[in-house]
Design goal:
Layout (H helix, E strand, L loop, with lengths): L2 H8 L6 H28 L5 H29 L3 H36 L12 H23 L4 H18 L1 H16 L7 E4 L4 E7 L3 E6 L4 E5 H5 L3 E3 L8 E9 L5 H14 L10 E4 L7 E9 L5 H19 L21
Antiparallel strand pairs: 1-2, 1-5, 2-3, 3-4, 6-8, 7-8
Helix pairs in contact: 2-3, 3-4, 4-5, 9-10
Length: 353
């Protein structure tokens, strides 16, 4: 115990228990008055709400702590047995520790929220990674609280730490898959390869919108309105194509069609561009384009390229373009080629039929 605290406590020996308790009530009321009438008024004039949340979080724990100190000092006359006095004081300390634990969790949430809003000054804290820091702060506060309670009750911290180490090894072997998903979730939140609302394509071919990113798993809403839950450990080791990310939300769609070798390619190009221009789902900028992809066995492969505003429109746009291309090609007399084979059959005398 600090020397100044021992001197202050010894100066209270001449006071009775009810005087000490009364003084503690008065001091607690003064703290409460100052916090509510002055400090909250000053923080209310600022632009941010974080300082208001911090003051509200520590106001009542501070009031209760002063009362608990007064009750603890008055126990020297109310309780004569040293062991009973130690138990009562340990209980009071435990109550104060839990009150401040709740307050510190609220303070950490307020501070992290304030830092996340100032992305320009604190680039290492962003809104998407905020849950990761909140969990880490809560775990830190809980660890400090557990250690403080052990000290208050005179428990052997070394023995508990050794037991916790052995227990942690056993849990690590038993729940290695769960821990792998947990650490993968932390890396996903920190690295942010995708966000909620992004359209992603997994290496297995599944495509959908991300609806939730948790510590253990990620949920994806597929195109058939079924939600798929994928462990983060699987996603962390898979190839992911994020269709939403990039310099722009626009995405290019491609429609391949094979035309006969007798077709006029300039005419084909003109018709395809007209089809793309007539489709209201195709973005006018960048402009649609047509590319001849080479020479095939039975046709000339031609590709129509256009941009869409959102990845979710890809299926509708491809369906619309394919339908319109088939109709226009029939009207324009353009043949959509398909594989053809000529079979020669030889008779028994060696001639061909």
């Amino acid at each position: 115990m600090p020397q100044w605290l021992e001197t202050w406590i010894s100066s209270l020996e001449d006071l009775t228990w009810w005087e000490i308790l009364g003084y503690s009530v008065v001091v607690a009321a003064l703290f409460q008055l100052v916090m509510s009438r002055f400090v909250l008024v000053l923080t209310g004039r600022t632009k941010t709400e974080g300082d208001d949340r911090i003051v509200r979080a520590i106001r009542w724990p501070l009031f209760a702590s002063v009362l608990l100190v007064g009750i603890g000092l008055s126990l020297r006359e109310l309780v004569e047995a040293p062991d009973a006095r130690h138990v009562f004081r340990s209980v009071l300390w435990t109550i104060a520790i839990f009150l401040w634990m709740r307050a510190l969790m609220r303070v950490s949430d307020a501070l992290l929220d304030m830092l996340a809003r100032r992305v320009d000054d604190f680039q290492w804290i962003e809104p998407r990674s905020l849950p990761l820091y909140e969990i880490a702060a809560k775990l830190l506060v809980i660890g400090v609280v557990v250690y403080a309670i052990m000290l208050v009750w005179n428990l052997d911290v070394t023995a508990w730490l050794a037991s916790a180490g052995i227990l942690g090894i056993a849990i690590g072997f038993a729940a290695k898959d769960t821990l792998a998903n947990l650490f993968a979730g932390i890396f996903i939140l920190a690295d942010a390869p995708y966000q909620i609302g992004d359209y992603i394509v997994l290496g297995t071919g599944e495509r959908g919108r991300v609806t939730d990113i948790g510590i253990r798993s990620t949920r994806i809403l597929m195109r058939d309105d079924m939600e798929v839950t994928i462990p983060n450990g699987v996603i962390a080791n898979a190839k992911i194509v994020n269709e939403t990310r990039g310099p722009s939300r626009k995405r290019r769609v491609r429609v391949d069609v094979g035309v006969a070798y007798e077709s006029d390619l300039d005419h084909v190009r003109k018709v395809l561009l007209e089809v793309a221009g007539a489709c209201d789902l195709v973005a006018p900028n960048p402009k649609p384009s047509v590319r001849v992809r080479g020479f095939g066995d039975s046709s000339i492969p031609v590709q129509l390229r256009g941009y869409i505003e959102e990845p979710v429109l890809k299926g509708r746009v491809v369906d619309r373009l394919c339908t319109d291309i088939h109709k226009r090609f029939k009207e324009e007399g353009i043949e959509i080629a398909f594989p053809q084979r000529v079979v020669h059959v030889a008779d028994g005398e060696g001639s061909l039929a």
